[in-house]
Specification:
The chain is built from five helices and four strands. It is α+β, with helices and mostly antiparallel strands and 181 residues long. The longest helix has 27 residues, at 59-85.
């Protein structure tokens, strides 16, 4: 038994034909109090991220920590191999000759930063996600070509299937699509 009439809906998606229209509509959606809304555009629209209050992520910090971990790990590996495990005197050089370790340390530092950034990006974006409910809307295929979509999710506190549909239609959308779960 379903408790809400929109329990089978992921949300409602409004389709627009220009970046100006979706930006104006996004402002109106935010001003109307909707918080669970997202825009899908074929290219970045200036000002759209600020409308939805998207914030900066911690990826730069995670990348820095990955680089530091890679550098420390590489230096430790070189130090262990040359000082403790295989202390072989070559040309009278000291065993702990850190300049000789730099190329390996730098390479592994870059790799550590890369893999930390990649992993953080995948986790923070919720990837890999093989399917999204919006993919069930036939018109959504044009979101990567020439259409702009604004979706209000059914989990939003202000969502009402009929009222939200009417509201989206008044924003100048060319079509409003129901998005099934």
């Amino acid at each position: 038994m379903q408790s809400e009439p929109h329990a089978k809906l992921f949300g409602l998606a409004a389709e627009f034909v220009s970046p100006e229209e979706i930006l104006r509509a996004a402002h109106q959606v935010r001003d109307a109090g909707y918080r669970r809304a997202a825009a899908y555009t074929p290219f970045p629209v200036k000002g759209l991220a600020e409308v939805f209050g998207l914030h900066k992520t911690g990826i730069p910090t995670i990348c820095l920590l990955g680089g530091i971990a890679g550098a420390v790990g590489a230096f430790g590996m070189c130090w262990y191999a040359n000082v403790l495990s295989y202390d072989w005197d070559v040309g009278g050089r000291p065993f702990n000759s850190w300049p000789a370790f730099l190329s390996i340390v730098i390479d592994v530092m870059i790799g550590g930063a890369f893999f930390a950034a990649l992993g953080a990006m995948l986790l923070l974006n919720g990837l890999p996600r093989l399917n999204h409910p919006l993919f069930n809307v036939e018109a959504f295929g044009r979101a990567t070509v020439d259409r702009y979509f604004l979706c209000i999710e059914a989990t939003d506190d202000r969502f009402d299937a009929v009222g939200t549909h009417t509201f989206l239609a008044t924003l100048g959308a060319t079509a409003v699509h129901e998005v099934p779960k």
